[in-house]
Amino acid sequence: MSIPAALAEIIDDFEDLQGQDKVTLLLEFSQELPPLPAELEEAAMEPVPECQSPLFLRVDAADRQSVRLYFSAPPESPTTRGFAGILYEGLNGSSAEDILGVPDDFYSTLGLEKVVSPLRLRGLSAMLSRVKRNIRESA
After folding, report:
1. How many CB atoms lie within 10 A of CB 77?
2. Is it true that domain 5-37+46-138 has CATH number 3.30.450.40?
3. Which letter does DSSP use for residue 107 in this model?
4. Pick from 52, 96, 92, 53: which is nearest to 75 by CA?
5. Is the pTM of this model over 0.85?
6. Alpha-carbon distance 5 to 22, whole Å?
7. SS3 state at 69
8. In whole angstroms, what is the distance from residue 87 CA to residue 33 CA?
9. Which residues neighbour 92 within 8 Å (Cβ) at sequence distance 6 or greater?
10. Domain ranges, ordered by start, for the chain
């Protein structure tokens, strides 16, 4: 198992922080999540019901060397948006092989369990699982 460089950098950033600073960084990721492209509608995306807030994703793995990820979550759901932002920044554009190699529990290295509920962390795990499943199914 391996972690793409961009995701490894995010993990390092979280490891360097404590307590509320981790929450602040998570909120920054929520603000940086890009809007959906005009041609992609939320209705055409897959819901992730394990998330506490509405979250939809789309995985375009047509180019196995540069998988494209799309996430949609409402602005009033900053934790969910933050998790989506982490996956977007850390995995978007990575190869299918690299994404499939990310450990399912990578989020434990972020150290968020002290500031975010286990139920919310399960949402991040579900997002990654669905991304991986979509990649496998597109092969």
Report:
1. 18
2. no
3. G
4. 53
5. yes
6. 20
7. strand
8. 10
9. 67, 68, 69
10. 5-37+46-138
Half-sphere exposure of 122 (CA within 13 A, CB side): 8
pLDDT in tens, 56-111: 999 999 999 999 999 999 999 999 999 999 999 999 999 999 999 999 999 889 99
What would the two tokens of residue 128 be? 């990654």
Half-sphere CA count of 70, side-chain side, radius 13 A: 17
Question: Rounded to the nearest 5°, which phi and psi values hold at 65?
Answer: -90, -15
Residue 139's pLDDT is what?
A: 79
Give the chain's end-to-end CA distance (angstroms, integer).
19
Query: What would the two tokens of residue 23 be?
Result: 């929450």
Task: At 60, list the tokens.
Answer: 């375009």
CA of 61: how far to CAs of 30, 33, 96, in Å? Answer: 24, 20, 7
Dist. CA 126–CA 128, nearest whole Å:
5
User: Which tokens sit at 24?
Assistant: 């602040």
What's the token pair of residue 40? 């992609």
pLDDT band at 42; cut points 50, 70, 90: confident
